[in-house]
Amino acid sequence: MQGIQAGAIQNGAVQDREARSELIEGQNSFASELGQAIENLNGLQEQSSVMTERLARGEAENMHDVTIASEMASTALQTGVEIRNRAVESYQRVMQMQI
Q1: Which of 45, 46, 75, 92 registers the highest number of CB atoms within 10 A of its CB?
Q2: Is there a contact between 72 and 42 (Cβ–Cβ < 8 Å)?
Q3: Could you give the CA distance from residue 44 to residue 12 in angstroms, rounded to a whole number?
Q4: Residues 6 or more apart in contact with residue 80 via CB below 8 angstroms
Q5: 3-state per-residue secondary structure call for 68-96
Q6: Residue 16 has pLDDT above 80, yes or no
Q7: Which residues are CB-contacts of 37 (< 8 A; sequence separation ≥ 6)?
Q8: Quick count: other Cβ atoms within 10 Å of Cβ 80?
């Protein structure tokens, strides 16, 4: 009987390690995706800024491209802010839960 219990405990420990490993892997994946999304947002903002400066100096070839880049950057920023707001709201709800 003790051998069965010891085996079950060891099996549980292995499952705990696997669960922790999957959790850490999921956290790293989420952090990586979030970092990449922020980098993309930053890239859109920088591209818009450069194109706007070129337009102001008279170097821009097509005003439509500048307008499109500006709108893309604006939309991406609004989306990022909304995602942040929802994440903060979700965190606050979790913190208010009673255990």
Answers
A1: 45
A2: no
A3: 48
A4: 37, 38, 41
A5: HHHHHHHHHHHHHHHHHHHHHHHHHHHHH
A6: no
A7: 80
A8: 17
Q: Report the distance separating Cα 72 and Cα 78, nearest Å.
A: 10
pTM here?
0.66
Tell the residue number behind the tokens 């930053």, with chain if given.
42
Residue 67: Cβ within 10 Å count? 14
Residue with tokens 């500006």, as numbered in its chain: 70
Token pair 């909304």 in the structure block, residue: 82
> What is the helix, strand, coil percentage profile of the chain, to 5?
90, 0, 10
Confidence label for 11 from pLDDT (cuts 50, 70 and 90):
low
Q: Which two tokens stand for residue 96?
A: 């208010």
Lookup result for tokens 């952090």: 31
